[in-house]
Structure to design on (287 residues):
């Protein structure tokens, strides 16, 4: 692969807030690579972040080798600055993150904690020259911790484990009829849904709120497709939440992504608690 990363990559520019001014990052800050394999119905999204350009190239190249050898369909996005990745995950989620630890401004450990706060199902692999941070890294429940120089076979083993655990079937959508349009939203991006004045108000991960037209059926009937998804639970007569977006849980409320507080009805608490504990257990989380 040559120095300008042109082979198989598209060049893109990203504008990221960094301090007071808005800094325009070089195209190398975000490097998408598409590896398509028709045998798979869904595509794994992988983010790789390393502030050393040649090490980023090596990680991307090794990951692409693994995908090609194993026939895995994936979209890889490389980030040369952690701020660029933090900005990107405000608008979209990745299934798998490969992170360096020693980076400017935001360390890989801080980055991992923030990713875990936003998405408790994401798979995280640390790839670093700093073996002494292994214990701290495990606070983010990573799929692996690799010490540079990266051994190809060790990386392949960890990638296989992480991809097997990744939830790549989050491309399901939900159609919302609003007052002036028909909106299709990714189910994984729904934070919660509130029943208000015979309409449903959807809070979306990017901060947007969508209000449906009024409907005649009951709230559970309207949300039946979501309630059939094991990521969702109805915690109150007027609220449905996406458990992927939970930041904290108490007897009377959930705190969701973005700090939104959603009440838990007292009569629903035992069932909601059991559903949430089952969800955490199924996804290997210990909170």
């Amino acid at each position: 692969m040559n120095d300008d990363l042109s082979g198989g990559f598209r060049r893109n520019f990203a504008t990221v807030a960094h301090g007071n001014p808005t800094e325009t990052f070089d195209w190398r800050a975000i490097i998408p690579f598409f590896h398509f394999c028709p045998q798979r119905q869904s595509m794994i999204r992988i983010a790789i972040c390393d502030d050393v350009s040649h090490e980023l190239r090596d990680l991307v190249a090794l990951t692409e080798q693994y995908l090609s050898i194993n026939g895995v369909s994936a979209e890889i996005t490389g980030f040369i600055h952690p701020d660029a990745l933090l900005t990107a995950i405000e608008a979209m989620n990745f299934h798998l993150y490969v992170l360096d630890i020693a980076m400017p401004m935001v360390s890989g450990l801080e980055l991992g904690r923030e990713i875990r706060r936003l998405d408790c199902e994401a798979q995280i692999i640390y790839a670093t020259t700093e073996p002494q941070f292994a214990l701290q890294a495990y606070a983010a429940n990573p799929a692996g911790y690799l010490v540079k120089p990266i051994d190809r076979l060790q990386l392949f083993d960890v990638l296989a484990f992480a991809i097997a655990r990744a939830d790549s079937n989050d491309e399901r959508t939900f159609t919302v009829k609003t007052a002036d349009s028909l909106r299709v939203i990714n189910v994984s991006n729904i934070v919660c849904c509130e029943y208000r004045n015979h309409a449903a108000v959807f809070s979306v991960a990017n901060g947007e709120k969508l209000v449906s037209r009024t409907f005649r059926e009951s709230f559970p009937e309207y949300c039946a497709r979501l309630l059939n998804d094991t990521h969702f639970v109805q915690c109150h007569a007027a609220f449905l939440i996406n458990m992927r977006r939970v930041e904290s849980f108490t007897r009377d409320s959930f705190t969701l992504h973005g700090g939104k507080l959603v009440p838990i009805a007292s009569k629903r608490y035992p069932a909601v608690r059991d559903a949430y504990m089952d969800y955490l257990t199924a996804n290997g989380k210990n909170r």
In short: Confidence is low (pLDDT under 50) at residues 1-41. DSSP finds eight helices and 18 strands in the chain.
